[in-house]
Automatic annotation (TrEMBL):
<feature type="domain" description="Polyvalent protein metallopeptidase">
    <location>
        <begin position="149"/>
        <end position="272"/>
    </location>
</feature>
<dbReference type="InterPro" id="IPR013610">
    <property type="entry name" value="ArdC_N"/>
</dbReference>
<dbReference type="GO" id="GO:0003697">
    <property type="term" value="F:single-stranded DNA binding"/>
</dbReference>
<feature type="domain" description="N-terminal">
    <location>
        <begin position="7"/>
        <end position="120"/>
    </location>
</feature>
<dbReference type="InterPro" id="IPR041459">
    <property type="entry name" value="MPTase-PolyVal"/>
</dbReference>
<dbReference type="InterPro" id="IPR017113">
    <property type="entry name" value="Antirestriction_ArdC"/>
</dbReference>
<dbReference type="Pfam" id="PF08401">
    <property type="entry name" value="ArdcN"/>
</dbReference>
<protein>
    <submittedName>
        <fullName>DUF1738 domain-containing protein</fullName>
    </submittedName>
</protein>
<dbReference type="Pfam" id="PF18818">
    <property type="entry name" value="MPTase-PolyVal"/>
</dbReference>
Amino acid sequence: MANPKFDVYQHVTDEIIAQIEAGTPPWQKPWTGGTGCVAMPRRFNGEDYRGINILMLWARASAKGYGSARWMTYRQASELGGQVRKGEKSATVVKYGTVEKETDDGEDHRIPYCRAYRVFNADQIEGLPEEFYNRPEPARNLGTELDSRLEQYFASTGAVIETSEEPRAYYSLRRDIVHMPPIATFHDANGYYGTLAHEVTHWTGSAQRLDRFNRFADKKAYAFEELVAEIGACMLAVNLGVTPRFDQSAAYVEGWLAALKDDKRAIFRAASEAQKAVDYIAAQTGQVAGELAA
């Protein structure tokens, strides 16, 4: 039976804040090398997790050094012939849904809910089919050369990408363009394409696309939008086989923490908006997740 005092939103937010304060937010940790998982987390049936669950499972995978991308409940593991090892601790994921409830006026209304449930990584389970233990390939080292496939991918988004000697990367809402410095000024191509993914995620927020800027226009909108862009860029990067490096200023991090601590649902909204941005870009490019990373 679920604990009636368990607050899903607070639990997730507390974990994310702890990761940021430790200097290892989960959307960065998978790419620092070593044992961190660099694949999109997947359910037992191979279906990708989405939104906030990606961040939660990245965080757990990076903290515990899990190599498998597959996650499942205790019951699902048993049905596959596996056995969770004694003493293993589960991770939390959330499920959204609606229930019908009859009001006093006799009309049915659909009430949204958010429910937590527990899953284990395949690395915590013995006896699963061999494919569940396959470790994902490491992200490609692109070096300093342009990657023609990634160039084609970002061109197919429809975003206007301008390059000049100006040493700044940004999205201009007024001009509706993404500006990038020359790739030669970056230490490596991974940093270039990671930065480009960040700015193209911003690009999805304009009024003619996902209209994110108008929907989130309060005084903390800037910090929130940066959080959306960071998460969205990481989701794009893992699908493209790019290893981004995000060297954001301390002011950004402080802004994220303030927004999260003041609103325990902020990280849920940011992950949801990032997922929408990635879905929009996928629809524009016609690319299947992971296609370019293969």
